Amino acid sequence: MSKTVLHKAASRGVANHGWLHSKHTFSFANYHHPERVHFGVLRVLNDDTVAAGMGFGTHPHDNMEIISIPLEGDLEHKDSMGNVTVIKKGDVQIMSAGTGITHSEYNKNKDSEVKFLQIWIFPEKRNIPPRYDQITLNEIDRKNKLLEIVSPDKDSSGVWINQQAWFYLTKLDQGVKIDYQVKKSGNGVYAFVLAGSFTIHSIELNERDGLGIWEVENFEIVANSANAEVLIMDVPMLLE
Known about the structure:
The chain is mostly beta strands. The protein folds into 2 domains: 13-136, Sandwich (Jelly Rolls), CATH 2.60.120.10; 139-236, Jelly Rolls, CATH 2.60.120.10. The chain has no helices and 22 strands. 0% of the residues lie in helices and 54% in strands. The protein has strands spanning 3-7, 13-16, 20-24, 42-50, 55-61, 65-72, 74-79, 84-88, 91-96, 101-107, 114-121, 131-136, 147-151, 159-160, 166-172, 177-181, 187-195, 198-200, 203-205, 210-214, 218-223, 228-236. The strands form 4 sheets. Strands 1-20-17-22-15-13-14 form a 7-stranded mixed beta sheet, with no helix packed on it.
């Protein structure tokens, strides 16, 4: 019997620091909800808006897989490995913190906000060498089909992650249906709606709603509106 947990957009934790407005699906910083600490190895799902010219100063991470998906604007990244890059809508960034890394993230633009998803995944192996990668996606590749953007396969077209996790983006026309097959036994799926509305596993979802599904092999994704977009995160449910 499948299990589900629904997190409506309005139920998320909110942090407003002036320069940063963040909505937390799971417990983060000063927001703590005992029933919303993680979904399997998915530890953090933050929906961040950073004011013009502002950002996160240099800070450390270790033993965490950190994925950033820009939704609007340009985000400049600098890290202790010497990477200086800008990520924008259509890009996906992975930072495998491993034994330790420091980095900063700033809104490169002085006249517009930057919006991005910050996602943390517990790693499969601890204390590996830190690593950075990013890719640029072609939006047409997710039109009415699943586009793999993260996987544990180093040879895939997406970014490689140190975990048995797969992420997909899809943008569907109204009425289009996709049958999703869970990638690995013991994995669950967390679906996060970026735009529009869906019925996923017979549950209705609107923009920024999140739905966790586990103990299931497959389920149906149906777009209820035009240009409906959803992020699918297929992750192990057991923390090892």
